[in-house]
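User: Protein folding is very new to me. Would you mind checking the protein record under this note? It all follows right here:
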Amino acid sequence: MNSPLDLPAIAEAAARRAADWLRSAQPPGDPARWDVKGRHDFVTEADRTAEAMITELLLTAAPGSRIIGEELHPEVVTEGLTWIVDPLDGTTNFLHGYPHYAVSVAAAVDGRLEAGVVVHVPSGRTCRAARGKGAWVADRRLAVSTTRAPAHALIGTGFPFKHLDRLDEYQRQFATVMRGTSGVRRAGSAALDLADVAAGRFDGFWELMLAPWDTAAGILLIREAGGRVTDLSGRDPGIGHTGLVAGNPWIHEWLLKVVEGTGAETA
């Protein structure tokens, strides 16, 4: 098994390889060519091809490791060296030519995140993190924002588009967050939203349910940038399907209280 010191470079090489290919890929314009995984949830050959490319590189570089991937390897495992892969986060954006989609690759050893990379495909901007070594874009170290007052905060979110039974719950949270902050944004890629928290562009983020491939790299980016990430109850989200609350320490605390319904002050 590779040393954790090797994992960031391997993850970045795999993510960049897929991103470079996706940048030149033509999305199928005819919706008849979009495969439907579930309500509002599409997949294309671009997703599958990108994941296959990533898998080939990772398993060649780290024989015996395992993949958790959205399209080809959805079973969650935590033993040994595991790669958590979203080959195209923001597929609907990709299909519509909306330039906000990403490749996300993370590495975990026995369930502990060691490396994470998120590549914004259209621009090639690459955010990377290694446990204990910080989060970076090129030679610039990332840091979460220092905004303390919710009234000054900009919050990212994701709609429960796969879980419409939770829409009323989400709308109650949204109303409280909207009233208490300077704004809420939803762009359609959780991986990029979490990278934006790490970079200080968002002060916080929440979503009711996400998959591990949506979040693993972003969780490490935020932690290494000085932020906090928990599930909706304030616990470590681990590597699994869960809701998420993230942000700098002050906004995370406030946002978690909102999500938990404790009636936190909004000023």
The first helix runs from residue 7 to 24. The first strand starts at residue 35 and ends at 38.
